[in-house]
Prior knowledge:
- By secondary structure, the chain is an alpha+beta fold.
- The protein has helices spanning about 15-25, 35-40, 45-60, 75-80, 85-105, 150-155, 160-165, 180-195, 240-264, and strands at about 60-65, 70, 105-110, 120-125, 195-200, 205-215, 220-230.
- Helix 1 (about 15-25) packs across helix 2 (about 35-40).
- The longest helix has 25 residues, at about 240-264.
- The radius of gyration is 20 Å and the shape is globular.
- The model is unreliable at about 260-264 (pLDDT under 50).
Amino acid sequence: MGDGPEHAGMVNKSVTKAVRLLRELAAQPRTGATVTTLAKSTGLSRPTAFRLLYSLEQGGLVDRVDTNYVLGWELARLGRHADPYAGLVAHAQPLLQELADQFNESVTLSVPNAQDGLDLVAEAAGSHVVGVLSRNMVGQRYPMHASSTGKVLLAEQPLDKLRAVLPEKLDAFTPHTITDRAMLLKELDQVREQGFAIIDNELEHEVLSLSRPIRDTAGTLVAVLTLNGPRSRFGRDRIPEALQQMQRTIDRLAELFWRDSLGA
């Protein structure tokens, strides 16, 4: 995460290229990928990719199994000591607040966890958010099929997995909750196609919620940005504007978090 354009000259391009390789490895299957595959997917020359992977291997940050590279044991060890969200939240919070102030509604940021769910890690609220949407939502868990964040995550899953984990009859939270699995699967197809998810009166009465995915440079879902509001203020007529402004926020978050590896 860069600290601003004034520090651009301090960026070590070899390090940012190595980070790009690590991110690409994280997006690969557990069996890993060859140096040729990694070089092509990261836009690096094969000799450069090989040299960087060799250096990372010496430090235990990657391992080599036959001809495939995988994320290394030392990377896993270091990761256990890291706060997974502190830096992300600190850098994202001003942009979340800006979006919340723009619509005078609540904004949240959620990240996928290892249990195929989502952790709500940050929130911001406009000045007139009151009632059900004004409570501290960080740490809250919401039903996947009845939340816009959950629908974004579910839309990432293959159809066979969805059929295995979703019961045919889903829990209802309001009369408008989608409780039929087939209907939900159809909506998830739409989420994939349109690039956003919506709930309207499905989790709580008179609450409309929009979510958009945030992806890293390898295209992996890393977070979900959500804008919530009561339908009396945040109705369907505001959806096009909201989606546009949310995408601008996502673009700025992506630039903040990954600009060095994009520009290296």
